[in-house]
Design goal:
Blueprint: E1 6-7, E2 14-15, H1 18-28, E3 42-45, E4 54-55, E5 58-59, H2 79-91, H3 96-110, H4 119-127, E6 136-141, E7 159-164, H5 166-174, E8 188-193, E9 196-198, H6 206-216, E10 229-233, H7 236-242, E11 247-254, E12 269-276
Antiparallel strand pairs: 1-2, 3-8, 4-5, 6-7, 7-12, 8-9, 10-11, 11-12
């Protein structure tokens, strides 16, 4: 006598077990499931810090006509000098001595000044570009308090910090066209019903809204855009890449950016600084354990 089979509730097929019915239904009939719709939300935006678009002192109407194209290659003299610098510096990575030789040949051939007088001038022109990435800077510091012989090593050691200008990094992020449509310009409160708040990101929370109220007490800020800055540190990536060196990076992001962009590799999170911190031990290292040894196991 054949074993009884389990029928599918939505079609004539039968199966040997309920598990088979479940797998079949998930693949063939799950589209019939009525998924609940997300609740309708109403939004209350901040009335005064509303990110008004302005040009100098006057407000710009929505959807203004595009600006006229400007043929400005500053700080380069013209498009030819820009193209040469881009090709030599970025594409071929020509060395400074070879560049100096090339500039002398061009100057002798054309009997006039070359595109650049030297590699140093070309590098200085590239460094003076105002657009693009924020340059890195470095500074060192050390403990400035009173010192004693038995103080821990970290008090005697210098520390170097590599960092970028926060304002420049934030401005570059605000100019990123990849964020269009995924960026909240105004703090808001979302409601799915009477007295039912829905908090989905930083700009919809109470903290940013309350801070906007404090800023709005100054009437000169009305029409401005609130830009919360998020900072954090994650040593894991650097440790894995450098063999557990004591490097501590500091990352920066904007609270206006939608959560879907933070893992999309669109510069929603950028490194702001990097510091190397020396390890500190309360108990001195045993001399015998400083020298590495290789141990072979029989297994």
């Amino acid at each position: 006598m054949p074993a009884p089979r389990v029928p599918c509730p939505d079609c004539p097929l039968t199966f040997r077990s309920r598990r088979g019915v479940s797998i079949h239904w998930a693949h063939c009939h799950s589209h019939k499931l009525q998924r609940p719709r997300p609740p309708h939300s109403t939004f209350r935006y901040h009335p005064t810090l509303n990110a008004t678009i302005i040009d100098d002192e006057d407000a710009i109407p929505l959807n203004p006509p595009p600006d006229e194209a400007v043929d400005d290659w500053y700080p380069f003299a013209n498009s030819a000098s820009f193209s040469f610098a881009e090709h030599a510096f970025q594409k071929t990575e020509t060395s400074a001595p070879d560049l100096d030789t090339l500039f002398k040949i061009l100057e002798a051939h054309y009997q006039q000044e070359s595109i650049f007088s030297s590699a140093e001038e070309m590098y200085a022109t590239i460094d003076s570009i105002q657009h693009g990435d924020a340059p890195w800077e470095s500074f060192s510091f050390h403990f400035m308090g009173p010192l004693a012989r038995d103080d821990p090593q970290w008090k005697h050691a210098p520390y170097t910090v590599h960092c970028r200008n926060t304002q420049t990094v934030v401005h570059n992020m605000l100019n990123n066209k990849e964020f269009d449509g995924k960026f909240d310009y105004i703090p808001f409160q979302a409601y799915t019903g009477p007295q039912k708040r829905r908090v989905s990101n930083l700009m919809s929370g109470d903290g940013v809204y309350q801070k906007a109220n404090e800023i709005a007490a100054d009437q000169n800020t009305h029409g401005s855009m609130v830009v919360p800055i998020i900072g954090g540190s994650d040593k894991t990536t650097v440790s894995v890449a450098t063999g557990h060196q004591e490097f501590h990076p500091f990352y920066l992001s904007l609270g206006n950016i939608d959560n879907s962009l933070r893992r999309a590799h669109r510069d929603a999170i950028l490194p702001k600084g990097l510091a190397r911190c020396r390890g500190y031990r309360r108990i001195p290292i045993i001399p015998e354990t400083v020298i590495p040894h290789v141990h072979y196991s029989g297994s």
